[in-house]
Every structure is written in structure tokens, then in C-alpha cells.
Amino acid sequence: MFSLLCGLLFCALGSGQLASGQPDDGKRYICRAIPLSGDASCPVTLLPELNAGSQEEELRNTVMQLRETILQQKETISKQLGTINELTTKLSLCASATDDRKYEKGGSWGKEKQNTMGDVPRDPNDTIDSLGKTMQGLKDRLENLEQQQMRANVSGASFPSELRDLLQRRLGELEKQLLKKVSNLEEEKSMLSNATAAYRLKTESTLNALVERISELEKGGGDFKSPEQFKLSLPQRTNYLYGRITKSLPEMYAFTLCMWIKSSATPGIGTPFSYGVPGQANEIVLIEWGNNPIELLINDKVAQLPLEVRDGRWHHICISWTTRDGQWEAFQNGEKLGTGDNLAAWHPIKPGGVIILGQEQDVVGGRFDAGQAFVGELSQVNIWDRVLKPVEIQSMANCSSYIPGNVVSWLASNVEVFGRGAFKRPLEMCQERLPNA
């Protein structure tokens, strides 16, 4: 430390003498500390002389560098402003493209308009993918801008912090708006999917109805003068020809079953009517098999009916029953032929079963036995939840009136036909079905 102070003092004294005793010769001196054992003289390193020409050249180079830096900064700012304008335009076009999307009647898209934004497709899936790509592109541009800022800082040029903050805020707003658009498109896609599914189901239902109608027309069911003026024809004794009534029965404490029936099958006409419920396939059954008479089964309890219909002619039959004491009555062609009681007394008819015409059910709706199948024709099978009066039954049997059932009525739309060979055909006039016709 002492040697350093000595050196400084020595140099200062020397320079002071120069300043006071000699004129300025354009030279500059540098003071440097020396050790005590070194040379006592003050070593001086002279700077190179600067003439006017070299100073001017150095200033010119500095000005050119500053000008290039300013031009680069202006170009960077211009590009950033262009990027902001481009993003604003694309966001506006995206909003207008979404608002222009409309639906036509029936759930289909409206008339396609010209796509004014080449990177926004019409399909919601493509739109979401495109928006994702746009967001990625924006993030890449922001990274490029940040890299440009870093390069500018390294080169000595200052990047405006105000412009950077503006770009970041604007990009954040654009990202929020694009995410909102994506959410709206997802909701729109979900609504479109639901509408498409509902429209598809409706279309399938309509097509099924048309197929059934065409099938009825092909089978001759289109010539019915009225909905009840048809008959079910089951010409063969098989386990796959039958009719099914689409409606079921409610819980009943009494009923009347009436129908027109025509058969010449032997031995026995089979099973023209059966109603089965879960747990009891023989809830209501009308059957004639072998050489036995026609039987009425209710909850597997049996009553034999004094009816004869195996002559190949039309007959009008009605069977009524009430749970009170299990009383029953049997009518043929408007005339009461039999009555009885204690048939499933106090047993209510169970609801929710299956009505089959032409087959006896071993399980609900199936497992048919060809030996018990009905062969012949059936028509105007009606069911009431009460015991009809004899005068009402007689009026239907002699063609004075037609009374549809209040529980099950004979309509073409209520009867389904199964099996190749089973048909719904037009029914003869009522007077032609009378025994003396």
C-alpha cells in the first residue's frame, strides 16, 4: 500500500510540473504503481495520436450502426403490429362464421355459405382442431417475438415493454375468446348429435310403420272397408302361425270375450284365444283339443262350454265371467247355451300379460305346441271389463249393431301377424256370416 501511494505521488508531481511548466503537446500520460525496488522513473505509455480524419470515420461508423439498429427495431414493431391486426381479423371471421351457421327443417344444416376464412372449416370437429392449431400458432409467434426481444437486447437495441405487454394482454384475450368459441362449438356438437339421434329414431319408426303397412297391403289388408272389417286367417296347424294383440289387459274382476270364429279342423279346433301373465301362462284360455269340448281356463281352473263350431261356417260366440262365485255364461249366435259357477272364484284377472290368437302359451308369449294350434279364421275379437247384457250380445250376433270392446277392440293396428302363411284379409259382410245366410 505504501509503495502504491508513493507511485501515485510521484506521478502526480511529474504531471503537475508538466501542466505548470510546459505547454500541451497533444500527448496523454498514464500513472502506474511501481515497487520500491523498481525503477524510480515514471514509465509512460503514450496513446496513439488521433487526427481529425480518424475521429470522423469512427463517428460515421457509429451513426451507421445506430441507424441499422433503428431500422431493425422499426421492422420488428411493424411485424408485431401486422400480427395483431391478423389475429383480430381472424377472430372476427371466426365469430361471424359461427353465427352464420343455421339449421333447416328436419334438423339438417342450412344452405352452405362461402367459407370466407380458409382455416375455419364448417364441421364442428374440424373447427375445434383448427382452433387448436391456431392457438398453437399464436403461442409459436409469441415465442418468436420473445426470442426477437432477447436478440434485440443482446445487440443493444431496446424492445418497448409497452408493446410487449400489449401483445401479451391481447394474446390472453384472444385465447379466452377462442376457448369460449371451442366450448360453444362443443355444446353445438352435442345438441346436433342429440337432434340427429332423435331424427334417426323418428325416421326408423316411420320406416317400420311403412314396412308394416306395405306388408298388410301385400297380404290383402289394405281393402278393409273399416278398421274392424278384417279377419285373421291361420290355415295350417303349426307352432309358428299366430296373431298377437298389441294391447294387454288391466286387472279385472269380470270380463266378456266375444269373437266371430270359423273352423272345420279335426280333431278339435285348437286354441283361438290365450292370455298369459308372468307366473301363470293360462290366465285366460279358450281351447278345444282332441275330442274334448271347448274349454274355458281361468287361472288353470277349467269349465267345459257347450259350444259347437267345427262345421266350417261362421259363428258368433261370447263368454262372460265374474270373480264373484266364479259365475260364467256361454253364448253362440246370440243364444245362451250354458252357465255355471265356481270357476276361479274370487280370483282377479292379473294385468300386464300377452294376448295370443291361435296358439296356447306354455310360457308368456311363447313355447307353442303345434298340436294345440288353431286352424281357421277369427274376426272381431273384443274384450270388455264387465258382463254384457244378453240383448247386447244378441244385437252383435244378428248384425243389428257392432260394439267394440272397451278394454281390447278389434282394429287392424292392434293385431300383429306372425309366420309365413298367416294373413289379415277383408271380412265378409255381417249378413253373409249369419248361420242362415
UniProtKB/TrEMBL annotation:
InterPro entries: ConA-like_dom_sf, Neuronal_Pentraxin_Related, Pentaxin_CS, PTX_dom
Any coiled-coil regions, as ranges: 128-195
Pentraxin (PTX) domain sequence ranges: 228-430
Disordered, as annotated region: 104-125
Span of the signal peptide: 1-21
Key words, A-Z: Calcium, Coiled coil, Disulfide bond, Glycoprotein, Metal-binding, Signal
GO molecular function: metal ion binding
One Pfam family hit: Pentaxin
Cofactor(s) needed by this chain: Ca(2+)
Keyword Coiled coil: yes
Identification of the protein by name: Neuronal pentraxin IIb
Species the sequence originates in: Seriola lalandi dorsalis
